[in-house]
Amino acid sequence: FCVFWAMMMPDDRRRGVFLFGSPGSGKSTVGRWLETHRGFHFEEGDSWLPSDMLESLREGEGFDDEQRDRYAQIIVDRVAAALRQPRPLAVSQALIKRRHRDLVKKAHPTLLFVRVSLSVGRSVGR
């Protein structure tokens, strides 16, 4: 609920929220809620994955550091484009590594970064 409270506060400097956390934690659910109930423009960060990373997922492989670093820059660029529209932005993407979050934060200091997580009991039910 802290994200909802923070985004409802008047602050001309705040342009959106970046929802990060483990897969299945509810990031997209929160993003869609912000879009539906608060008028945000929602972007699912996974839709920005380049083809080689999608192929790695299909093959059940993890990502290497080069892929992660390149994808972090893609996120920076896509967020810049999305911030050009007038509505506040909500982005969901795991972005587990702090260095990648820091890269996005540096490029887009007007985003509020919020870690989304579930209790163990809730995650078992999903």
Short summary:
This protein is α/β, with parallel strands linked by helices and 126 residues long. 48% of the residues lie in helices and 14% in strands. The mean pLDDT is 86.
Descriptive report:
The chain is an alpha/beta fold and 126 residues long. The chain has six helices and four strands; from the N terminus they run H-E-H-E-H-H-E-H-E-H. A four-stranded parallel beta sheet has the order 2-3-1-4, with helices on one face. The longest helix is centred in the middle third of the chain and has 18 residues, at 65-82.
**Cα end-to-end separation:** 20 Å
Q: What strand line-up does the widest sheet have? A: 2-3-1-4
Q: What count of helical segments does DSSP give?
A: 6
> What integer is the average pLDDT?
86
> Class by helix and strand content?
alpha/beta
Shape category: globular
Bin the helical content: 40-55%
What fraction strand? 5-15%
Radius of gyration: 15 Å
SSE pattern, N- to C-terminal: HEHEHHEHEH
Low-confidence stretches: none
> How many β strands by DSSP?
4
The main pleated sheet reads as: 4 strands, parallel
Ordered list of secondary-structure elements with their pairings:
Blueprint: H1 2-8, E1 16-20, H2 27-38, E2 41-44, H3 51-58, H4 65-82, E3 89-92, H5 98-107, E4 111-115, H6 120-125
Parallel strand pairs: 1-3, 1-4, 2-3
